[in-house]
Amino acid sequence: MSQMFQEQELLIAIAVRQQNPTILTADFLKYTGIIPSDWELAKPPVMTNNAAQVVFQNGVSVIAEVNRIIFAEAIANKEPQDVQAPAIAHKYIETVKQVNYQGIGINLRGFVLGESNNQSGRNYIFNQLLQPGAWQNFGSAPMQASMRFVYTLDETQLFLEVNEAQLQYPDQTTKPAVLFSANFSRAIAQEQPTERLAAISAVIDEWQTDLATLKSLVDTKFFNAEGYAINTAATDTIQFPSMVAE
Predict the structure, then answer these.
(1) Of 81, 101, 144, 158, which has the highest C-beta tally within 10 A?
(2) If you average pLDDT over residues 188-193, what whole number do you get?
(3) C-alpha span between 123 and 129 (Å, rounded)
């Protein structure tokens, strides 16, 4: 029986024409009411001339760069109503109105686990998605592959990357997996700032629809009853690397 897609991260990246990243501090976010006053930092903030980052204990992080603001959250095992990053993104753009917002991308990442102690993630990519050939056998180490797909949907384009991965658990054990990183890109054509903000706000609210689309694509098109079977489920918290926004 095939395993199902397991979501891990949501990342909302809002493009801006130019901003001063140093305005992003935990005190600023609390003072303006963008985040609740009782949120506690998970680690010391990072601050440079070109970027700032604050990470909270509940798994939410906010990153400001010169040309974008990013709201990220670990969403594994969370119900949709418990996911906080979209509400924080709404409050931020409603509060920080002096910034020229340009566009938005909804990024999601998750995986399908493979069997322990084998190369099922690698086998899936090389045997199911790629045509076997001599080109796979070259060099002094096994070749690695990263695949990129572009899907045109009704109101968005979906850019999907598929990679083999090794996921590390807190007890240092590892399991192979197939990693899916998705970027849903929607054009923001409105010219007036208020209309552009309204359009960006509407896209933020599409994150659950985007997640459902990604899950359906992976579960029914990449892994299905007639496709490649992966047999191990995950119940423990996984140390998952950071996702780069597009």
Answers:
(1) 101
(2) 84
(3) 9
